[in-house]
Write a structure and sequence with these properties.
Blueprint lengths: L1 H4 L17 E5 L6 H12 L19 E9 L2 E8 L6 E7 L14 H9 L12 H8 L5 H10 L2 E3 L3 E3 L2 H14 L16 E7 L3 E6 L9 E6 L6 E3 L3 H10 L16 E3 L8
Antiparallel strand pairs: 1-4, 2-3, 3-4, 5-6, 5-11, 6-7, 7-8, 8-9, 9-10
Length: 277
């Protein structure tokens, strides 16, 4: 599966009779428990799209089977389902996923709307409600409104499979941990709640960390500070975190940009399904 999943790493050709080009079907061995397949793929690719949450409107292999679970993964769709005949077996498929388009967005679209569009994320999915009053009371500060809207739209997960925007609980954890241990001697900004201290909101597997610089009473005007772990000085950005995220995904010259081989952006959903589990 892995050699097929990364775009341009392998040609997608299907050996199933009558199937169109643009995808590869992989029969699931007889006797394989579907729940085991879904558990493994959930660990790899996050929470899937389903009929309840909304399947992709166009899937290159959409007519070949009844697909019940679909995961976005860069320039690929990973799909699980069953053939359409009565005695059909379970199938996995890897199909081309075009890069989501920003066409149709108004010129004054918010940075959050642009993130939704560029990742192909549905903005209609229900999320667990957050008691922001309780979160901000424990932190001792209000949080930027675009962060709250981002969390309400995306929930928990990874942008492009590697960039983790902290949940409210994680923002609290990082703030309380930093307040206990203090700052490293090379860091130019003290940790929050010191005046102008940094309050972390994201990190990634490249050991890069992203924080607000909590200067001034209006959180929507806070600057950002991005750094690698270690003694190198970071970079300050005067923008909101949703603007930063959008440019991080789409600007190949961004100093903290995503890997160049990521051609189609996506959000790897780690939200619990309704009812948990």
């Amino acid at each position: 599966m892995s050699p097929l999943a990364w775009p341009d790493s392998a040609e997608l050709v299907c050996a199933e009779p009558g199937h169109r080009p643009g995808h590869t079907c992989l029969p699931v061995p007889d006797g394989t428990n579907s729940s085991d397949v879904l558990e493994v793929f959930g660990d790899w690719y996050g929470r899937p799209l389903t009929e309840e949450s909304g399947l992709p409107a166009v899937l290159p292999c959409g007519e070949e089977a009844r697909w019940t679970h679909v995961w976005p993964f860069a320039g690929r769709w990973i799909a699980f389902g069953r053939g359409r005949s009565e005695d059909a077996r379970s199938l996995l498929a890897v199909a081309r996923r075009p890069a989501p388009s920003l066409d149709g967005l108004p010129p004054d679209a918010s940075w959050l709307d642009r993130l939704v569009a560029v990742t192909g994320r549905s903005s209609s999915g229900a999320r667990d409600e957050v008691d922001w009053t309780a979160v901000e009371s424990r932190l001792g500060t209000r949080l930027p409104n675009d962060y709250k809207r981002l969390h309400e739209t995306f929930g928990e997960g990874l942008f492009d499979g590697f960039l983790n925007v902290h949940s409210p609980d994680d923002v609290i954890w990082h703030a309380e941990y930093a307040a206990r241990v203090g700052q490293e001697p090379w860091e130019p900004h003290p940790p929050f709640p010191a005046p102008g201290g940094v309050l972390h909101w994201a990190n990634n597997e490249h050991h890069q960390s992203f924080a607000w610089v909590t200067e001034g009473p209006d959180p929507d005007r806070w600057g950002l500070y991005a750094t690698y772990e270690g003694p190198e000085e970071g970079i300050r950005f005067e923008c909101t975190m949703t603007e930063f995220l959008f440019h991080q995904l789409t600007d190949p010259q961004h100093p903290f940009g995503v890997p160049a081989e990521v051609g189609a952006h996506w959000f790897q959903d780690h939200n619990e399904p309704e009812g948990g589990g």
